[in-house]
Amino acid sequence: MPGRLHGKVAMITGGNSGIGEATARLFTREGANAAILARREAEGRAVEKGIRAEGGEVTFIPCDVTDRKSVDAAVAQTVSAYGGLHILINNAGGGAREMFPDESDETWERVLRINLTACFFTCRAVWPHLIQAGGGAIVNVSSLAAIRTGSGLPYETTKAALLGLTRSVAVTHARDKIRVNTILPGLINSSMVRRLVGDREDRVAPRIPMRRQGTPWEIAKAIVFLLSDDASYITGTELIVDGGLSAR
Question: 58-62 and 33-38 as β-strands: parallel, antiparallel, unpaired?
């Protein structure tokens, strides 16, 4: 039985680890052809090799999503490799723990560029190809920090702004048959988080109603739902996946 994304071509930013890697693996298992974009080439090549070992069709493309020319080149390479483009997942992102008013100008600009400007670049670059395909879908990966404080001003501000970008593009261009939604992960036990803050499970699990952090696979499954025909009447909205944390 064909997967829910059979025959689709998906481009995934930040596909070299964590949520991005899980999403790429799940996408190919659901029948999609995937292009994964990341700056860290060794990690990206390892993910590419692992997916191909499973029989999935994937291409790793080195890309700096904060650079418009790099994004345009990656989109062109994806379309050349697979003959089109139907799906975009904006997963690449970064943060800083600096709190107002102590943020440096450099920190502000860096987080703004990776969390927001990069999504604008990728959405704009893929748009003509989604229209040419007769429609498509985009998921922007925001964060629970978009609606809750405690993660630092640059991170919270940019993740909140991503909700506005999503709604604006989704509503203005719904007639193009392109759906655009945002997913808001809560506290996730990802490789990126462990690299930045270490193992926080014992510290944060008691705060979460489900008493555990989420996994990248649980976010990836929610992303697949939003991008599949199962969500054909869902656009311009936010899906919170946080184990009940925001409901407390």
Answer: parallel
